[in-house]
Amino acid sequence: STLNTISAASHIEQEIDVEQEIDEDTVIKENIAEQKNNENDIYVNKIIISKNIDNDKSSDTYRNPIDAFKTISTLDESVIKEVDYYPTLFIWSSVNTENVSLMNENEEFEPINLSMTLKCKEKLINKLDYTITANTPRWREWIEINIENIDRNMLNEFWNVEIVDNRNNAVLESRNFKLIDSNTVLEQTELNV
Protein backbone atom coordinates (compact mmCIF):
# COMPACT_ATOMS: atom_id res chain seq x y z
CA SER A 1 0.00 0.00 0.00
CA THR A 2 2.85 2.41 0.86
CA LEU A 3 4.68 1.34 -2.31
CA ASN A 4 1.56 2.05 -4.37
CA THR A 5 1.23 5.50 -2.77
CA ILE A 6 4.88 6.37 -3.62
CA SER A 7 4.39 5.12 -7.17
CA ALA A 8 1.20 7.14 -7.56
CA ALA A 9 2.91 10.25 -6.15
CA SER A 10 5.78 9.85 -8.64
CA HIS A 11 3.28 9.48 -11.46
CA ILE A 12 1.51 12.69 -10.39
CA GLU A 13 4.81 14.59 -10.19
CA GLN A 14 5.69 13.45 -13.69
CA GLU A 15 2.35 14.64 -15.00
CA ILE A 16 2.87 18.05 -13.39
CA ASP A 17 6.41 18.32 -14.82
CA VAL A 18 5.22 17.51 -18.33
CA GLU A 19 2.63 20.27 -18.20
CA GLN A 20 5.03 22.95 -16.90
CA GLU A 21 6.64 25.36 -19.32
CA ILE A 22 10.24 24.59 -20.17
CA ASP A 23 12.64 26.92 -18.39
CA GLU A 24 15.34 27.58 -21.01
CA ASP A 25 17.87 28.70 -18.35
CA THR A 26 17.47 25.34 -16.59
CA VAL A 27 17.88 23.44 -19.86
CA ILE A 28 21.04 25.41 -20.65
CA LYS A 29 22.46 24.78 -17.14
CA GLU A 30 21.66 21.06 -17.45
CA ASN A 31 23.39 20.89 -20.84
CA ILE A 32 26.47 22.61 -19.40
CA ALA A 33 26.46 20.20 -16.47
CA GLU A 34 26.33 17.28 -18.92
CA GLN A 35 29.26 18.74 -20.83
CA LYS A 36 31.28 19.11 -17.61
CA ASN A 37 30.67 15.45 -16.79
CA ASN A 38 32.25 14.33 -20.05
CA GLU A 39 35.90 13.91 -19.03
CA ASN A 40 37.30 14.46 -22.54
CA ASP A 41 35.19 17.47 -23.37
CA ILE A 42 36.27 21.02 -24.07
CA TYR A 43 33.51 23.58 -23.98
CA VAL A 44 33.14 27.27 -24.67
CA ASN A 45 32.03 29.36 -21.69
CA LYS A 46 31.36 32.56 -23.63
CA ILE A 47 31.89 34.39 -26.87
CA ILE A 48 31.80 38.15 -26.46
CA ILE A 49 32.07 41.05 -28.88
CA SER A 50 33.90 43.80 -27.04
CA LYS A 51 34.97 47.38 -27.53
CA ASN A 52 38.25 46.76 -25.65
CA ILE A 53 40.25 44.10 -23.78
CA ASP A 54 41.92 44.98 -20.49
CA ASN A 55 45.69 44.67 -20.90
CA ASP A 56 46.65 46.05 -17.47
CA LYS A 57 48.38 43.12 -15.74
CA SER A 58 47.64 44.57 -12.28
CA SER A 59 43.90 44.87 -12.98
CA ASP A 60 41.20 42.53 -11.66
CA THR A 61 39.77 42.41 -15.18
CA TYR A 62 43.08 41.64 -16.95
CA ARG A 63 42.49 39.82 -20.29
CA ASN A 64 38.72 40.40 -20.04
CA PRO A 65 36.34 42.52 -22.15
CA ILE A 66 35.94 46.11 -20.91
CA ASP A 67 34.22 49.43 -21.75
CA ALA A 68 31.32 47.91 -23.72
CA PHE A 69 30.54 44.35 -24.74
CA LYS A 70 27.79 41.95 -25.76
CA THR A 71 27.62 38.23 -25.15
CA ILE A 72 26.78 36.34 -28.33
CA SER A 73 24.58 33.43 -27.32
CA THR A 74 22.75 32.06 -30.34
CA LEU A 75 22.81 31.08 -34.01
CA ASP A 76 19.18 32.15 -34.43
CA GLU A 77 19.18 35.06 -36.91
CA SER A 78 15.91 36.37 -35.47
CA VAL A 79 17.80 37.19 -32.26
CA ILE A 80 19.93 40.16 -33.28
CA LYS A 81 22.82 41.50 -31.21
CA GLU A 82 23.74 44.66 -33.06
CA VAL A 83 27.36 45.67 -32.63
CA ASP A 84 28.51 49.21 -33.33
CA TYR A 85 32.01 49.41 -31.84
CA TYR A 86 34.31 51.58 -33.94
CA PRO A 87 37.00 51.77 -35.23
CA THR A 88 37.99 48.38 -33.77
CA LEU A 89 36.26 45.55 -31.98
CA PHE A 90 37.39 42.34 -30.34
CA ILE A 91 35.98 38.83 -30.66
CA TRP A 92 36.77 37.33 -27.23
CA SER A 93 36.24 33.77 -26.05
CA SER A 94 36.62 31.81 -22.85
CA VAL A 95 37.14 28.03 -23.06
CA ASN A 96 36.99 25.45 -20.27
CA THR A 97 39.57 22.64 -20.38
CA GLU A 98 39.35 21.49 -16.73
CA ASN A 99 38.36 17.93 -17.59
CA VAL A 100 40.66 17.36 -20.57
CA SER A 101 43.80 15.28 -20.32
CA LEU A 102 46.86 17.04 -21.71
CA MET A 103 48.74 13.73 -21.87
CA ASN A 104 48.58 11.48 -24.93
CA GLU A 105 48.46 7.65 -24.87
CA ASN A 106 52.29 7.58 -24.49
CA GLU A 107 52.05 9.79 -21.39
CA GLU A 108 53.64 12.71 -23.27
CA PHE A 109 52.44 16.28 -22.83
CA GLU A 110 50.13 17.23 -25.69
CA PRO A 111 48.57 20.71 -25.62
CA ILE A 112 45.16 21.40 -27.16
CA ASN A 113 45.08 23.24 -30.47
CA LEU A 114 41.98 25.31 -31.26
CA SER A 115 40.99 27.84 -33.91
CA MET A 116 38.66 30.79 -33.70
CA THR A 117 37.35 31.98 -37.05
CA LEU A 118 35.33 35.02 -37.98
CA LYS A 119 33.32 34.94 -41.23
CA CYS A 120 30.83 37.08 -43.06
CA LYS A 121 28.91 35.81 -46.11
CA GLU A 122 31.06 32.66 -45.98
CA LYS A 123 34.20 34.80 -46.45
CA LEU A 124 36.95 34.36 -43.86
CA ILE A 125 37.63 37.68 -42.13
CA ASN A 126 40.17 36.44 -39.59
CA LYS A 127 41.42 33.22 -38.04
CA LEU A 128 43.32 32.72 -34.81
CA ASP A 129 45.03 29.39 -34.14
CA TYR A 130 46.00 28.97 -30.50
CA THR A 131 47.38 26.38 -28.14
CA ILE A 132 46.01 25.66 -24.67
CA THR A 133 48.73 24.40 -22.34
CA ALA A 134 46.84 24.07 -19.04
CA ASN A 135 43.70 22.66 -17.48
CA THR A 136 41.67 25.73 -16.65
CA PRO A 137 38.06 26.87 -16.31
CA ARG A 138 38.80 30.00 -18.40
CA TRP A 139 41.38 30.05 -21.19
CA ARG A 140 40.87 33.44 -22.87
CA GLU A 141 41.79 34.41 -26.43
CA TRP A 142 40.65 37.12 -28.83
CA ILE A 143 40.83 38.54 -32.32
CA GLU A 144 41.05 42.28 -32.93
CA ILE A 145 39.20 43.56 -36.00
CA ASN A 146 39.76 46.97 -37.54
CA ILE A 147 36.36 47.87 -39.00
CA GLU A 148 37.90 50.51 -41.26
CA ASN A 149 39.65 47.69 -43.17
CA ILE A 150 36.43 45.70 -43.76
CA ASP A 151 34.55 45.72 -47.09
CA ARG A 152 31.56 48.06 -46.86
CA ASN A 153 29.26 45.32 -48.19
CA MET A 154 29.96 43.29 -45.04
CA LEU A 155 28.53 45.96 -42.76
CA ASN A 156 24.91 45.51 -41.70
CA GLU A 157 25.32 41.77 -42.27
CA PHE A 158 25.45 38.70 -40.06
CA TRP A 159 28.88 37.56 -38.95
CA ASN A 160 29.71 34.11 -37.63
CA VAL A 161 32.24 33.18 -34.92
CA GLU A 162 33.31 29.56 -34.75
CA ILE A 163 35.63 27.77 -32.33
CA VAL A 164 37.05 24.48 -33.65
CA ASP A 165 39.07 21.71 -32.00
CA ASN A 166 41.83 21.17 -34.57
CA ARG A 167 42.56 17.63 -33.32
CA ASN A 168 39.34 16.33 -34.87
CA ASN A 169 37.88 19.42 -36.65
CA ALA A 170 34.91 19.37 -34.26
CA VAL A 171 33.03 22.68 -34.03
CA LEU A 172 32.87 23.45 -30.30
CA GLU A 173 30.74 26.57 -30.75
CA SER A 174 29.25 28.63 -33.56
CA ARG A 175 27.45 31.93 -32.96
CA ASN A 176 26.16 34.90 -34.99
CA PHE A 177 25.97 38.65 -34.55
CA LYS A 178 25.02 41.52 -36.83
CA LEU A 179 27.63 44.21 -37.39
CA ILE A 180 26.03 47.59 -38.09
CA ASP A 181 27.98 50.49 -39.56
CA SER A 182 28.43 53.89 -37.92
CA ASN A 183 26.14 55.60 -40.49
CA THR A 184 23.28 53.29 -39.51
CA VAL A 185 23.95 54.06 -35.84
CA LEU A 186 23.82 57.82 -36.59
CA GLU A 187 20.58 57.41 -38.59
CA GLN A 188 18.97 55.45 -35.72
CA THR A 189 20.10 58.07 -33.19
CA GLU A 190 18.61 60.87 -35.30
CA LEU A 191 15.30 58.99 -35.60
CA ASN A 192 15.11 58.58 -31.83
CA VAL A 193 15.68 62.31 -31.14
Low-pLDDT stretches = 1-20, 26-40, 185-193
Oligomer: single chain
What structural category characterises the helix and strand content?
alpha+beta
Percentage beta strand: 35-45%
Global geometry: globular
Question: What features would you describe in this structure?
Answer:
It is a single chain. By secondary structure, the chain is an alpha+beta fold. The protein is 22% helix and 39% strand. The chain is built from three helices and nine strands; from the N terminus they run H-H-E-E-E-E-E-E-E-E-E-H. It has helices at residues 2-19, 24-37, 182-192, and strands at 43-53, 65-71, 82-83, 88-96, 112-120, 123-132, 139-146, 157-165, 170-179. Strands 3-9-8-5-6 form a five-stranded mixed beta sheet, with no helix packed on it. Strands 2-1-4-7 form a four-stranded antiparallel beta sheet. The chain starts with a helix and ends with a helix. Mean pLDDT is 78; it is low at 1-20, 26-40 and 185-193.
